[in-house]
């Protein structure tokens, strides 16, 4: 386990990060009291990779008319709309 005070950590941050990446526990202290523990970042497993094409083929369904025009009533006569 590596201990460093804040001043030392600022001076040698890259070495402390390398030690944490290698699996070593790195503790940073303020006035001799431990306040931070550095650990390597672990990328969460989401179960899929957005960069892989066609990985959801056959799993996504879309209605046959999903891209048909939608009538929002914009073709109504403005006078009729004012009366509503």
From TrEMBL:
Region Disordered, residue ranges: 65-84
Transmembrane stretches, start-end: none
Signal sequence segment: none
SUPFAM superfamilies: YefM-like
InterPro entries to which the protein is assigned, alphabetical: Antitoxin_Phd/YefM, phD-YefM_TA_antitoxins, YefM-like_sf
Pfam family, one: PhdYeFM_antitox
Family as reported in the entry's similarity comment: Belongs to the phD/YefM antitoxin family.
Function: Antitoxin component of a type II toxin-antitoxin (TA) system.
NCBIfam families linked to this entry: phd_fam
PANTHER family: ANTITOXIN VAPB49-RELATED-RELATED (PTHR35377), PREVENT-HOST-DEATH FAMILY PROTEIN (PTHR35377:SF4)
Identification of the protein by name: Antitoxin
Biological source species: Phycisphaera mikurensis (strain NBRC 102666 / KCTC 22515 / FYK2301M01)
Taxonomic lineage from the root: Bacteria, Pseudomonadati, Planctomycetota, Phycisphaerae, Phycisphaerales
